[in-house]
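User: I've been going back and forth on whether these two constructs are worth ordering. Before I decide, could you fold them both?

Assistant: Sure. I'll take them in the order you sent them. The first construct and its structure tokens:
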Amino acid sequence: MDREYFCGTPAAFDEIPGRSAQERFASLGLESGKRLDLGSLAGLHERYGFAVYLYFDEHLARTSTLQDDLEDFRIVPEAARPFMPLPLFLRTIREHDPGFSPESVVVEVIDCSAMQETYGCVLRPMPYVRGLLLEPGQ
């Protein structure tokens, strides 16, 4: 599916009410501590084009930042890190379990923000959500 981009930023995310990334995420009901199923988070990701990073290690998720983690794990292949982008996670899990249902997995939002990334020759904000995959029953 093609999305419209303006200088690399997903147009749909920019149209969400709010002046900052945190305000826009709050307009979607996403804020630190919120729990939702992975299917709902994946749907928001698809619709609005923000990045989602899923963490498997609770300590790392709660004590680090995305920017630090991307730097600290830059030499580690994405699939071997204690966190990974949502599309890679879904692709990997579906390869091993074709019947996987994202609605059966609960994610706790750790934080919602934006960080600067290079797009062509300019810096632009990349909105993202960091989420912790919870154990069943948590």
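The second construct, handled the same way:
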Amino acid sequence: MAVAVSVPVSMITVGAGTAFAAQPEPNAMTFGLLGPVGLIAIVLGVLGMTAGVLRQRRKARAEAVATQADSRVEVAAESVPVSTLAE
């Protein structure tokens, strides 16, 4: 039981010392997400999302035009002149 309690406690204290050592100096310049690589990744992501939205809109517009053209063909095929029916 003592081992089960002492191992997690020792891991927490050792881990805290390691995490404390990994902290940057107060005067050190850190980029975080705003570094050059991060900015390029953000720009590429926004451009990709924009391209995807435009692609979906073009696809939907093309399907709508095709549906309208098909419905016009069906209506034209169904509408038969009355004079041909009378004969």
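Notes on the second construct follow. The mean pLDDT is 74. The chain is about 80% helix and 0% strand.
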